[in-house]
């Protein structure tokens, strides 16, 4: 098999990244955007020892699960790499990922149907898009897969269309004022990224200009013009002077309006700052939490620990169902936000502490705390062994695991089983339609 060779392939499966999988001459071939059941003429792009990558040249037989997408860029850039698959099949695909992982781990457990998102497109309450010069003009868009080539775009598909409107209006203001886009190679120019956040609850929007310098000619004028775009209540400059792929720098400067916007999860309000982590899908998040609350069978006598508490979203949503909540989080400003959010909602039975959950939980136990339920919502890398051991020593009846990465979740569940906890079922919840990301909830109970 060689690069540029044309081959006829029958697609039999989908990979984790939703690439079509085919087999030929003992090789596994991953074909971009191809679906199971399809027959394609494909061009080989890259050959490794036992596998290769290819792209479709001609679709010979089309899958009934394929939908025609409006813009090729969505799949080209990886912005929405499932956009060519019918939504109900996307939900099946996500469930199947979890089933496959459980099978590999020799766990025979029920996986429920994936809970669909109320919005299939336009669900994101935040966009972060690169700004670059393309063909002599400042453009916003998305990077082509595995590259830093900007593909100019105005319709970001998974993002709230109101956010797209403000992104485009801001781009036009930057163009009109001749503000230079960031040049990654030379580490020169000004605007690196645009970030826009929108409150689903009240429609208010925050615009963040991520810039190489914290001041430059015309900045005040640009900020003033952006503040006049309808619904924009906050304009912030984030200063990122480094040559780095990390999007945001450490410091924010308020250019106009308020430093925060306010959104809701269910009936709980949250103040959100430029750097706050906030769940992306505002309408699906309360469904995720309600499902977790229901599956955990919480009662008004329960003492709950919200490990990995962020700005308090889970604990504050749970507080009214239980006796008390204690949250723990390593990022100091997030802890501060969680405390403020408790006050904002008049919630008096939730407190938040800054530190590592695995270090603090044992000290609470020795102080006499008895936790009935621990909620965990870790980052993609999952839990550490240290955390798992500390949580088991805390001796809760139940551990509610909310996961954004089923691979690390299954690994962690296996460890809990060895330590005397077991689970019956897993429910995938679609927080990120059109993308391969899978969110899951499961409840571990002490045996
Ligand atoms: N539950 C929140 C945040 C989830 S993101 C929400 O849904 O909004 C995971 C959070 O865990 C991050 O805020 C991260 O800073 C925090 N975190 C990571 N490791 C931690 C640890 N060892 N102890 C406590 N918090 C931790």
Automatic annotation (TrEMBL):
SUPFAM superfamilies documented for this protein: Nucleic acid-binding proteins (SSF50249), S-adenosyl-L-methionine-dependent methyltransferases (SSF53335)
Residue ranges of every copy of the TRAM domain listed in the record: 1-58
Binding site residues for S-adenosyl-L-methionine: 279, 308, 329, 377
Superkingdom per UniProt: Bacteria
UniProt-recorded Gene Ontology molecular function terms: rRNA (uridine-C5-)-methyltransferase activity
Top-level class of the enzyme under EC nomenclature: transferase
An individual GO BP term: rRNA base methylation
EC number: 2.1.1.190
Residues annotated as the enzyme's active site: 404 (nucleophile), 404
Protein family per UniProt: Belongs to the class I-like SAM-binding methyltransferase superfamily. RNA M5U methyltransferase family.
Name of the protein this chain belongs to: 23S rRNA (Uracil(1939)-C(5))-methyltransferase RlmD
Gene coding for it: rlmD
């Amino acid at each position: 098999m060689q690069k540029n060779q044309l081959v006829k392939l029958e697609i039999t499966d989908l990979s984790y990244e939703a690439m079509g999988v085919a087999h030929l001459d003992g090789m596994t071939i991953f074909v971009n955007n191809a679906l199971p059941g399809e027959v394609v003429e494909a061009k080989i792009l890259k050959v490794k020892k036992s596998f290769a990558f290819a792209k479709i040249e001609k679709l010979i037989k089309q899958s009934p699960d394929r939908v025609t997408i409006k813009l090729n860029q969505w799949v080209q850039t990886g912005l929405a790499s499932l956009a060519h698959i019918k939504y109900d099949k996307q939900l099946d695909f996500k469930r199947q990922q979890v089933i496959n992982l459980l099978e590999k781990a020799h766990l025979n457990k029920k996986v429920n149907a994936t809970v669909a998102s109320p919005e299939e497109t336009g669900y994101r309450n935040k966009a972060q898009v690169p700004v670059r010069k393309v063909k002599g003009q400042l453009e916003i868009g998305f990077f082509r897969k595995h590259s830093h080539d900007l593909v100019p775009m105005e319709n970001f598909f998974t993002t709230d269309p109101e956010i797209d409107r403000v992104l485009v209006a801001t781009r036009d203001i930057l163009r009109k004022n001749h503000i230079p886009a960031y040049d990654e190679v030379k580490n020169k120019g000004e605007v690196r990224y645009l970030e826009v956040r929108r409150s689903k609850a009240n429609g208010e929007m925050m615009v963040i200009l991520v810039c190489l310098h914290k001041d430059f000619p015309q900045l005040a004028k640009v900020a003033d013009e952006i503040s006049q775009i309808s619904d924009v209540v906050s304009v912030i400059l984030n200063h990122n002077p480094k040559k780095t792929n990390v999007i945001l720098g450490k410091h924010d400067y308020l250019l106009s309006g308020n430093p925060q916007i306010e959104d809701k999860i269910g009936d709980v309000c949250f103040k959100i700052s430029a750097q706050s982590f906030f769940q992306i899908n505002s309408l699906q998040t309360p469904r995720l939490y309600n499902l977790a609350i229901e599956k955990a069978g919480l009662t008004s006598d329960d003492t709950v620990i919200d490990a990995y508490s962020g700005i308090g979203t889970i604990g504050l949503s749970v507080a009214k169902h239980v006796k008390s909540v204690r949250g723990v989080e390593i990022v100091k400003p997030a802890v501060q936000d969680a405390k403020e959010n408790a006050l904002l909602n008049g919630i008096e039975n939730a407190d938040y502490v800054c530190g590592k959950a695995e270090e603090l939980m044992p000290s609470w136990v020795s102080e006499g705390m008895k936790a009935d339920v621990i909620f965990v919502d870790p980052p993609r890398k999952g839990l550490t062994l240290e955390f798992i051991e500390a949580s088991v020593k805390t001796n809760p009846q139940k551990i509610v695991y909310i996961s954004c990465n089923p691979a690390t979740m299954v690994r962690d569940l296996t460890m809990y089983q060895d330590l005397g906890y077991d689970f019956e079922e897993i429910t995938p919840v679609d927080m990120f339609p059109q993308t391969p990301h899978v969110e899951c909830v499961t409840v571990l109970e002490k045996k």
